[in-house]
Backbone:
């Protein structure tokens, strides 16, 4: 069992429809495929997409009499951050990673766990509607005018964490903005988004990665709880699905998540091999 607190990965975006839950599930399962012990908490008790995905996965295991890498999972339905912290401590006991999926709206618990993240992942679509979550741009020049309240919150948190790192040996926060569904974006708009993200990333210190494209298969996999990683259980995959798996490989690798030392062996299982 792990003797230290699990590494916290928080998927957060106060706007819905960004592929946040889909990305969170696939990253959690990818870590489990590598042999890591993973716990997962869904902070959206109304939609509970993240939680339902893992429930569907368990049901598929029972129905097909198979074993799939997964996560210990729960949904938080409480009303204060102390209870949430207690749940996180309990479910994360003995785990290497603790993954949070948060609602696509302004939510006190989402903001609370965001400030505790070791890696904060903010998926977004390539549009200035989504960009507005982290910064506002000039209507004529598309230059960044100011940070959003959310970006200010994370910026202040990262500064405090950086100071605490030296004092308490606490991990610094890695903030990663993941650009999903870029294949459906008009070229000129994509360039403007890239420029705005590049400008803002220098000011607040996040990294930008390419994420998952819009694909029907993600919606088709939800009822079974299967992921693109579950080779041998998906049937024949077309070329586009193989490309999607490669996108996921690239994203998992680029997140640079620290694997436990016990898994740092030549024979360790590949997350997306």
Residues:
């Amino acid at each position: 069992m792990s003797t230290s607190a699990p590494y916290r990965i928080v998927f957060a975006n106060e706007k819905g429809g960004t592929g946040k839950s889909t990305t969170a599930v696939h990253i959690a399962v990818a870590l489990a495929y590598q042999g890591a012990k993973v716990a997962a908490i869904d902070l959206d008790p109304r939609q509970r997409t993240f939680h339902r995905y893992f429930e569907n996965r368990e049901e598929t295991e029972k129905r097909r009499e198979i074993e799939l890498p997964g996560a210990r999972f729960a949904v938080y339905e409480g009303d204060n951050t102390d209870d949430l912290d207690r749940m996180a401590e309990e479910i994360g006991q003995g785990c290497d990673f603790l993954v949070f999926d948060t609602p696509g709206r302004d939510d006190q618990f989402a903001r609370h766990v965001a400030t505790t993240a070791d890696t904060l992942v903010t998926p977004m679509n390539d549009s200035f509607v989504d960009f507005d979550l982290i910064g506002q741009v000039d209507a004529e020049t598309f230059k960044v005018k100011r940070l959003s309240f959310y970006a200010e919150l994370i910026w202040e948190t990262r500064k405090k964490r950086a100071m605490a790192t030296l004092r308490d040996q606490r991990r610094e926060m890695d903030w990663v903005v993941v650009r999903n569904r870029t294949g459906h974006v008009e070229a000129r708009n994509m360039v403007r988004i890239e420029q705005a993200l590049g400008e803002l990333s220098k000011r607040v210190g996040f990294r930008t990665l390419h994420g998952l494209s819009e694909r029907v298969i993600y919606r088709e996999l939800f009822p079974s709880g299967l992921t693109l990683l579950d080779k041998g259980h998906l049937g024949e995959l077309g070329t586009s699905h193989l490309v999607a798996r490669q996108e996921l490989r690239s994203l998992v690798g680029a997140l640079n998540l620290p694997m436990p030392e016990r898994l740092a062996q030549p024979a360790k299982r590949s997350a997306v091999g």
User: Anything to note?
Assistant: The longest helix spans residues 149-168. Residues 266-271 have pLDDT under 50 and may be disordered. The chain has one domain: 7-262.
